[in-house]
Structure formats: C-alpha cells, structure tokens
Amino acid sequence: MKGRSLVSLIMSFAIIATGSLSVFANSERYPTDAELKKLRIDFEKQIDSFQKTSRKDTPEINQLRAFRSAWSKVDPGVVSFLGSYSALEEGKFIYPSNTKGRVCIIDTYLSSRWGNTAESHGILLTVGSVSNGTIRTSNNHVFIQKGDYLGDTYVQKDNEARLYGYRLIGSLKSPSPTHIPGFNINYFPDWVKQEIIQKFKEAGCTASLPNRR
C-alpha cells in the first residue's frame, strides 16, 4: 500500500505538468503571488497525504543532514532547499553557492538528445536567489518547499501557472567527468559534461562544506 501511495503521489505531480521539457524551459514570467498561493495549497495537500506513511532515513539523507547543518552556520536561508530530488525520470539538484543567498540548480530530464546545447541533451544549470522561503531562478521559475518535498512553479506559453513536484532523495556531489547528477550520465557527450562543469565553477557553485566566514 505504501508503494502505491508513492506511485500515486509522483503520478499526481507529473499530471500537473504538461510535459517534462516544458518544466525546464524559460518560464514566460514569474508566477504572481496569487498564483503561488493557489499552487502552494495544492502542493501541501498532495504531500500531506503522503507524509502519513513512514520512510526510513538512508545514509545519503543522513549525509545531507550533516551538510545542511554545516551550511546553516553561514547561509541559513538556503539550507532547507539543498539536496538531490527526483520525480519520475527527472532530477533536480540544488547546491549552495559561494555567494550568500544564492543557489545553483542542475536539472536533468529525458531528452531526444539532438542539438548542440546541453539543454537539448537533457541537462540544464541555472542560478537562483533565495528570499522569503522561495527560490527565484534566472529563467523565471519559483521554487517552494515543505519538508522533503520541492515544488517547481512556472508559467507556460498559455499563461497558466503550473507546478511540478519532487521528493528529496539524498546528498550532493560536484559534477565531474565521471559524475554528472541525474539518471542519464552515460548518454552525455564529453563536451556536455565539460560545459556543465565549467558553468558550475563559473557560477560559484559548490558541494563542499563551507569555509568559516
């Protein structure tokens, strides 16, 4: 029964979105406060129904707790968002930044893997600013969060605000030639890996424990 609950929750998150690729594209605009309020109510109803079931902590979750604890001493506002999240065949990986109040987000998703951009191969790196318990990204998405769940809100070309939900699964590792976050690393050409690694470094992203400031 618990397994069915998890499948039902993930499927309900997926149905809200009109397709994986649309979630990661540039949003037409930021959702308004009124739209966010409605989406947050829908989001909390869905996750509240699942939180009634138990989940054992994994070594990766415990590792993430220690990582968050260390970052809480230097940048507490970003801490609750940090970690690796999944939804069906998509992943979202939220890292702290060397710039206070900023995070880096790596999205991985299914793609046709055509084209000459990293995005066309199913991976995207964006940065976001944390304020008032939300993340506002450079491509007009707003992230909300409750417990082990993350909601990615965005506005599509039809001017409708939508939500895609993710569940926390574990800790973070820096992208490298042998490790790119997500589920499709074996399909990434070397130049895609190098592009993400370079963008990660240039944006001041990190998966390391913070230096004392």
How would you summarize what this structure contains?
By secondary structure, the protein is an alpha+beta fold. It contains 5 helices and 8 strands, in the order ααααββββββββα.
Question: How would you describe the overall organization of this protein?
Answer:
- Helices cover 31% and strands 25% of the residues.
- The protein is α+β, with helices and mostly antiparallel strands.
- An 8-stranded antiparallel barrel has the order 1-2-3-4-5-6-7-8, surrounded by 4 helices.
- Helix 1 packs antiparallel against helix 3.
- The radius of gyration is 16 Å and the shape is globular.
- The termini are far apart.
- The N terminus is likely disordered.
Structural features:
single chain, 213 residues, alpha+beta, 8-stranded antiparallel β-barrel, 5 helices, 8 strands, globular
Record the SSE blueprint.
Layout: H1 2-16, H2 20-24, H3 33-50, H4 59-72, E1 83-87, E2 90-96, E3 102-108, E4 123-131, E5 134-137, E6 142-146, E7 149-155, E8 161-170, H5 190-202
Antiparallel strand pairs: 1-2, 1-8, 2-3, 3-4, 4-5, 5-6, 6-7, 7-8
Helix pairs in contact: 1-3
Helix run count: 5
Specify the structural class. Answer: alpha+beta
Helix content: 25-40%
Q: How much of the residues is beta strand, in percent?
A: 25-35%
Give the oligomer, counting copies of the same chain as homo and different chains as hetero.
single chain
How many β-strand stretches?
8
Radius of gyration: 16 Å
Q: Let me know the average pLDDT.
A: 84
- The rough form would be described as globular
Q: Point out poorly predicted stretches.
A: 1-22
**End-to-end CA span:** 48 Å
The description of the largest β-sheet is: 8 strands, antiparallel, barrel
Spatial ordering of strands, largest sheet: 1-2-3-4-5-6-7-8
Order of helices and strands: HHHHEEEEEEEEH
